[in-house]
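re the bet — no i am not wrong, look at it urself. input seq straight from the record:
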Amino acid sequence: MRRIETVAALRRYIAAAPRPIGLVPTMGALHAGHISLVDAARDDCRTVVVSIFVNPTQFAADEDLAQYPRPIDRDLAMLRDSVADAAFTPDAAEMYPPGFATTIAVGGPALPLEGAMRPGHFAGVATVVAKLLLAAAPDRAYFGQKDGQQVAVVRRLVRDLHIPVDIVVGPTVREPDGLAMSSRNVYLSPDQRAAAPAVHRGLLAARRRYVAGERDRAALEAACGQALAGVREITRIDYVALVDADTMAPWEGAGRPMLAVAVRMGATRLIDNLLLDGD
């Protein structure tokens, strides 16, 4: 596996690489969820590039940028084992050189939920994703359903800017007890980790109501919220929202129903979602 650290070197590599090319953008601290995307790209593409970049522009001043895990040697070893062809590992100065002054602002699916809770977050996401797509020029780019709103934002970005790439979405990969895999799970205390699967149980409770025929948005949200309300380790529920999976607007019976949840356990924030009509 080749490690590449500059955009110029990545473009030289891509120019000579066999197509189709698959790109898996990550912020590192890799886990089985990331590797499932690498595996999907390996199945679909002749060349697989994985980017590892902790993007500072999607973190607010009070968020965990400085503490975000960066086990680069472990990550590279995992990618070698998964038979990725190249790892693109730029630093912040490479992605945002002196005088950088261009940001992509996304409306629509970027506005509610995480967009409302974390102002500026999706501008940072959209900008770095666009930069990665321009640098790697992949045929396909792979994202996980665990970040369902991010998926909707990236799809909107690609459609609106006519970026010639197929967005492939992999299913959420979960621990045996249902907790969605996330690089931030390492922040959980033992008690918080034991309680964290309540988020998935709440999502499943709403899905059971949906499968049984319930279509009232408030009732489906309440089914999930009730499962969370009695969990002592959940110190705040930021939102429980049933939305259209493509637009992130409140679900009104048309489009795919995605139930999105964000909770806090002390200093740790967990997000998850479930497509109520199937994965």
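see?? The mean pLDDT is 97. told u. also Strands lie at 2-4, 21-26, 47-52, 86-88, 140-144, 166-170, 236-244, 257-265, 268-275. so pay up
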